[in-house]
Design goal:
- The protein is built from 13 helices and no strands.
- It is elongated.
Length: about 290
């Protein structure tokens, strides 16, 4: 290996190791928290941390942009020195960051068990309103609670099957905190799936194509959701400037619609929900998927 090839390999390795996925996942979690707190503020005059979260989100967005600029600069440099192969961008793996399972530390005997969640009633009421499916009368409390990544896979499976009753059961079985966290997990996943469906990185001019591909299916599974929620999600996927994006409404609406939209895009791509696994092989982008009709 020549000196220039060794340099190219080191630069590509450095580019691949930049934590773009982690920063993107953190940014979306901050954005999700901000939306929830802004909704809470409707009944409170206390700003409850919204300005601080807004500042943190802005810093995260700048960090993500800087990391991407650095990656683009490395790719451009490698091209200019004749290492075109090394300059080729690797598959976008940002979507995997939000699906990583959190490390669970074993409980110590002296640790007191936390109290059960007290946000359940409003979550179930909202799910019933969105899906038209009432909460089951009997809940299996012994069934282990799914984390957000697993909930996303279950929701996507129900969507792919076209089973609204199953979708309602999975959402009702989740805790409010787990369900709301879909807002933080789904953005990078949706961006990747939309790119695979379109055959290129989603752009503002792709908004109408994605809306046509998804709106009917989302509406049939979530008859109680506002079309504006889906429009806002698609605008974010296509990197539409913030000033042109609408309001996402109730935080549960945004989270649930994002989960359903994930399932719709998977169905359009002919993929199983199990492909939403950070350890799964990288899905191939199929050229014939570019037609999002």
């Amino acid at each position: 290996m020549s000196l220039i090839q060794e340099l190219g390999a080191q630069l590509r390795a450095t580019s691949d190791e930049l934590p773009t996925g982690l920063v993107t996942a953190a940014m979306e979690k901050l954005r999700s928290a901000t939306e929830i707190l802004m909704w809470v503020r409707e009944t409170s005059i206390d700003p409850v941390g919204v300005p601080q979260l807004g500042n943190a989100t802005e810093h995260a967005e700048r960090a993500a942009a800087a990391l991407r600029i650095a990656q683009d600069a490395i790719a451009t440099y490698l091209t200019q020195v004749g290492l075109t192969g090394d300059a080729a961008a690797p598959p976008d793996s940002d979507w995997k960051a939000g699906l990583e399972r959190p490390e669970v530390k074993p409980e110590k005997p002296e640790d007191a068990k936390p109290e059960g969640e007290k946000l359940g009633p409003w979550w179930h009421q909202r799910i019933a309103q969105l899906t038209g499916e009432d909460a089951p009368e009997v809940n299996d409390k012994d069934q282990p609670q799914a984390d957000t990544a697993e909930l996303l896979r279950r929701v996507a499976s129900g969507v792919r099957a076209g089973d609204k009753a199953r979708l309602g059961r999975e959402l009702h079985a989740a805790s409010a905190a787990t369900g709301l966290a879909l807002s933080a997990v789904t953005p990078a996943v949706l961006h990747r799936l939309a790119g695979d469906l379109l055959g290129h990185e989603p752009r503002p001019e792709d908004v109408e194509r994605l809306r046509s591909a998804a709106a009917g299916r989302v509406r049939s599974l979530l008859p109680g959701t506002s079309p504006a929620v889906l429009d806002t999600l698609i605008a974010r996927i296509c990197r539409v400037p913030v000033a042109q994006q609408g309001q996402s409404g109730h935080p549960a609406d945004n989270a649930v619609t994002a989960g359903v939209l994930t399932g719709v895009l998977l169905a359009r791509l002919g993929r199983d929900a199990n492909t939403l696994d950070p350890n799964a092989p990288e899905p191939l982008r199929r050229p014939e998927a570019a037609d999002a009709r």
